[in-house]
Design goal:
The protein has 36 helices and 2 strands. The chain is mainly alpha-helical and 686 residues long. Strand 1 and strand 2 form a beta hairpin. Strands 1-2 form a two-stranded antiparallel ribbon. Among the domains are: 70 residues; 27 residues, no CATH class. One of its GO terms (biological process) is spliceosomal complex assembly. InterPro entries: HAT, HAT_Syf1_CNRKL1_C, Syf1-like, TPR-like_helical_dom_sf. Keywords: Coiled coil, mRNA processing, mRNA splicing, Nucleus, Phosphoprotein, Repeat, Spliceosome. It comes from Ceuthmochares aereus.
Length: 686
């Protein structure tokens, strides 16, 4: 397509959604149910189903879902031998399919064929030993059967394959369920030894450092601690520290070690562990270690001292940033997070006061968007952390006084303040705040929030007044008109709802008039006021002659459910066709005629069907010149045009004009040939 310019008439998203919603109602009829009354019919049914399944398998043997459906169908008939045979045939086709093994074993377990299930699991783990799901299912089955020794044997076979971490922990949890602590300890030792050997061999083979995860050592130590073997737990931590050395120190190991010693009331050992780690781990990798050390000192040490030692560096960094640029609000946010986590309430308030004192120098909303969150965080801190409701109210009021409402405002602040007052069970102050906001700086979001509040309180008279104020402020907002009318409809005041709709459609400017008219029409249809609905359609057609309106009008008449509905619908189509004869967009007229034709095919007679066929246009391809923006020739483009029989009948000289144009073209070609005879000679020789 050469012309890539957008079409003059665009389809809106609302139209697409409406059509999709209308087509959802087109449901397919369910298949007929077959009732089997005797054995012969049952055998015949089985034979036909088996033949169907076998044909599907023969067409494509590699589709495992066909095998599974076949076997499950045989299982549903209690034909276990047949189902087993089908699964075996399927395994011959694809023995690597995990789902096939699982379905096969589940069938045997479901039918209480324990030995068969064991046989299948043994084959599965032998064939595909790296599929952990087989091992989990096998051990779970043995444990459910009470065969603890058999389950342990399966776990031992699994551990020989050196599986992933979760498998080892499953084995350990299995032993702990049966109070076998010594066995669980030996499994931990084997696992830790396996990790150490794994690291050693990788170092030799790859010449890189690949050390095992610290969390395995921590889990081992916590296991010993849980079972009150504190000396063993301490020994595990010490072995881990020695194993990783100073080259691969991890803060999580030292944090866990320190917390263990803290639980044992060994506070001096805790300090030694923290200091040893902090002296050797880089500062950027020891954030969690710093945090836990600070918490420990808060509990058992001098708070001021630890605060000066650990937090001073970060505070100094943030102080330098905010001094260099006081309007760097991101630095203030980071500084406040640090202070909130460590300092007392007075220090936090002091930093907040310093931060909010840096008011943006320009009264433009884009410069205030980050700054306003300082106030929001301040208020939330006072309410949630400091539990000071009076100070929270003062923060909100100071923020509201600071914002230049004549130029811009923030609806979020007003709504948060009102919600705070509601949480304090102070409804009059919340209403006063929202009323002040609407009086000073009305916004759609403020009206919606206030209305939602009153709806939750079931204050419908206040909702009506708010809607009236809202519509005085923004009469072009169709959504507000619709919500107001829906509220009156829910309250049962149909006349008020209708009056609201009438006021809405009489507005000179609306943002989404098509949505408003549709809502009004749907409202009248729900009230079964068909005559008023017709009048609405007529009034809408006086404003717009869009084809969708005509089609919707005709479908409404068809769905009215009365005797004269067909004639009314056909009359609407007649009027629409006459009205759209002078329409420049021929595609809309074609759309109307196609809708009319579908109607006649379903409800019309032979005469009406023949008539609508005669009205259908002829589709022809044409060419037209294109011009660029500067007026130069931009080539030709092809397009489709429609010729309607009615238009041709009204122009009897159309054929004569076409013949005259053809004759003129032929004359021009002959004159050009006489003026250039050499060209004709060359063409004849070629």
């Amino acid at each position: 397509v050469k012309n890539k310019a957008p079409a003059e008439v665009q389809i809106t998203a609302e139209q697409l959604l409406r059509e999709a919603k209308e087509r959802e109602l087109e449901l397919l009829p369910p298949p007929p149910q077959q009732k089997i009354t005797d054995v012969e019919e049952l055998n015949d049914y089985k034979l036909r189903k088996r033949k169907t399944f076998e044909d599907n398998i023969r067409k494509n043997r590699t589709v495992i879902s066909n095998w599974i459906k076949y076997a499950q169908w045989e299982e549903s008939l209690k034909e276990i031998h047949r189902a087993r045979s089908i699964y075996e045939r399927a395994l011959d086709v694809d023995y690597r399919n995990v789902t096939l093994w699982l379905k096969y074993a589940e069938m045997e377990m479901k039918n209480r064929q324990v030995n068969h299930a064991r046989n299948i699991w043994d084959r599965a783990i032998t064939t595909l030993p790296r599929v952990n799901q087989f091992w989990y299912k096998y051990t779970y089955m043995e444990e459910m059967l009470g065969n603890v020794a058999g389950s342990r044997q399966v776990f031992e076979r699994w551990m020989e394959w050196q599986p992933e971490e979760q498998a080892w922990h499953s084995y350990i949890n299995f032993e702990l369920r049966y109070k076998e602590v010594d066995r669980a300890r030996s499994i931990y030792e084997r696992y830790i030894l396996f990790n150490a050997l794994h690291r050693y061999f990788f170092n030799i083979a790859l010449l890189v450092i690949v050390h095992p995860d610290v969390k395995n050592w921590i889990k081992y130590a916590r296991f010993e601690e849980k079972h009150s073997y504190f000396a063993h737990a301490r020994k595990v931590y010490e072995r881990a520290v020695e194993f990783f050395g100073e080259d691969h120190m991890d803060e999580h190991l030292y944090v866990a070690f320190a917390k263990f010693e803290e639980n044992q009331k060994e506070f001096e050992r805790v300090r030694v562990i923290y200091k040893y780690a902090l002296d050797r781990i880089p500062k950027q990798d020891a954030q969690n270690l710093f945090k836990n050390y600070t918490i420990f000192e808060k509990k058992f040490g001098d708070r001021r001292g630890i605060e000066d030692i650990i937090v001073s560096k970060r505070r100094f960094q943030y102080e330098e940033e905010v001094k260099a640029n006081p309007h760097n609000y991101d630095a203030w946010f980071d500084y406040l997070r640090l202070v909130e986590s460590d300092a007392d309430a007075e220090t936090v308030r002091e930093v907040y006061e310093r931060a909010i004192a840096n008011v943006p120098p320009i009264q433009e909303k884009r410069h205030w968007k980050r700054y306003i969150y300082l106030w929001i965080n301040y208020a939330l801190y006072e309410e949630l952390e400091a539990k000071a409701s009076k100070r929270t109210r003062q923060v909100y009021q100071a923020c509201i006084e600071l914002i230049p409402h004549k130029k811009f405002t923030f609806a979020k602040i007003w709504l948060l303040y009102a919600q705070f007052e509601i949480r304090q069970k102070n409804l009059p102050l919340a209403r006063r705040a929202l009323g002040t906001s609407i009086g000073k700086c009305p916004k759609n979001k403020l009206f919606k929030g206030y209305i939602e509040l009153e709806l939750q309180l079931r204050e419908f008279d206040r909702c009506r007044k708010l809607y009236e104020k809202f519509l005085e402020f923004a009469p072009e907002n169709c959504t507000s008109w619709i919500k107001f009318a829906e509220l009156e409809t829910i309250l049962g005041d149909i006349d008020r709802a209708r009056a609201i709709y009438e006021l809405a459609i009489s507005q000179p400017r609306l943002d989404m008039p098509e949505v408003l008219w549709k809502s009004y029409i749907d409202f009248e249809i729900e009230q079964e006021e068909y005559e008023k609905t017709r009048n609405l359609y007529r009034r809408l057609l006086q404003r717009t002659q869009h084809v969708k309106v005509w089609i919707s009008f005709a479908q409404f008449e068809l769905s009215a459910g009365r005797e004269e509905s067909l004639s009314r619908c056909r009359q609407i189509y007649e009027e629409a066709n006459k009205a759209m004869r002078n329409c420049e967009e021929k595609e809309e007229r074609v759309m109307l005629l196609e809708s009319w034709r579908n109607f006649e095919e379903e409800f019309g007679t032979d005469t009406t069907k023949e008539r609508i066929v005669k009205l259908m246009p002829e589709k022809i391809k044409k060419r037209r010149k294109l011009q660029a923006e500067d007026g130069s020739d931009a080539g030709w483009e092809e397009y489709y045009d429609y010729i309607f029989p009615e238009d041709t009948a009204n122009q009897p000289n159309l054929k004569l004009l076409a013949m005259a144009k053809l004759w003129k073209k032929q004359q021009q070609e002959s004159e050009a040939a006489e003026m250039d005879p050499d060209k004709d000679i060359d063409e004849s020789q070629s």
